[in-house]
Structures are given as structure tokens and as C-alpha cells.
Amino acid sequence: MIPRYQKVLFVILLIAALGMGFKLWQLRDRAHKRLLAGQTLAPTAAPVVAPAEQATLVVANDLDDSLAPQMHSLPLPADPGARARAVLGKLLDLYAAPESTHEIPGGAASVDQVFLLRAQGTKNSGDQLAVVNLTGTFAASHPAGLETESLTVLSICATLRANLPAITQVRFLVDGVERPTLAGHADLTRTYLTSEATPVEGIKP
Question: pLDDT digits over 51-67, tens only?
């Protein structure tokens, strides 16, 4: 037979174990509730949104082979490179829209990056060279033709000049490398002067 004192000791230990287990469960439950409350009350950092500004987009029109300025309100970052990418992205979004006067698929995603460098061969030390890196998908899907391709290149150059006057030169890359032409015609090996892309509505560039 089990001695009486052992039975009593066993019951005491069992009660103590159950009590400790209950206490630990309570502590765990309280800690979990505090964690959830902290996550709920913690302030969420608001995403940084650039303020909307008026931007001039120089839009191509295939009907009369012209370039015409249009005003659009869009978020423009303070950083010049990001600003250049934003305005070009909006320009290419217009070209990808169903009612576009210069239909090109791809939209804003077609501009991978815009790098701003010190322009070479100019007297003004503030002149900048914009290196526009387009995606290979954009180049592959661009309609072929000298006038169509030239309008795209010139509209990009004119839009950059209209919104960032310090940009006086533009070079183009496709997927980070130099490409002979955009879609078989417009030369992408040369440096374009933004002064040559002045928009004049109704007149061929």
C-alpha cells in the first residue's frame, strides 16, 4: 500500500503543478493581448507621396506628324532623375491609352530609369545629359517607321526640356545597352539636343 503521507504529498504537488500551469497560461494570454494592442495603437508611417504639380507633356500626333504641348497634373518628386522618369512615364501612359494619337503599347513601365549627367561640349556647366533607359519590350513593340519613331524620340526630348530646362542633351539605352535604332529607323546611337525638339503644333518636327 502507498503510505498516506505520499498520497498527501502527491495531491499537493498535483495542485501546485495545476496552479502554476494556470498562472503561466494567464501570463501568456496577457502578453499576447498587450502585443496585439501595441500593434493596433502603433502609428503607421504614411507613404511618401509627391505633391501634384503641373507638367508639360509634348505629345506626338500621327495624323499630322506634329508635336503639341499638353498640361497635366501629376505627382512630381523633388529628385530631378525621378522627376524626369515621372513625366516620361505619364507621356508613355498617354501613348498606351486607347484614344492615343500616337499609339505605342507599354506605358510608364517602358521607362526603366533616367540618369542625369554633366553634359559634354557645352559652355554652361549646369547643362545636363539625360540618359533614358527604355525596356526591350517597349522597343520590340514600337511601331516601325521613320516618322513614327522620330516622333517618339523627339517628344521624349521635348518633354524633358519643358520640365527640366537644364537637360540639353539626351541619349537612349535599351535594357541598359546601346541599340542602333528604336525599331529599325530612328538612330539611338547619337546624342539628341533638346533644342532640336521644340514643339510646334501642326508643323512637322
Answer: 889 999 999 999 999 99
Rounded Cα gap, residues 32 and 185, in angstroms: 66
Q: Is the pLDDT of residue 7 over 90?
A: no
Whether residue 50 has pLDDT greater than 80: no
Residue 203 inside a domain? The answer is: no
88-125 pLDDT tens trace: 999 999 999 999 999 999 999 999 999 999 998 888 99
The C-alpha torsion from 50 through 137 and 129 to 167, rounded to 10°, is: -50
Distance separating alpha carbons of residues 83 and 95, to the nearest angstrom = 19
- Domain co-membership, 36 together with 62: no
DSSP 97-125: STT-SS--S-GGGGEEEEEEEEPSS-S-T
- Residue 5, number of CB atoms within 10 A of its CB: 8
Q: Are residues 146 and 71 in the same domain?
A: yes
Region of 95 please: left (phi>0), alpha (psi -120 to 50) or beta: alpha
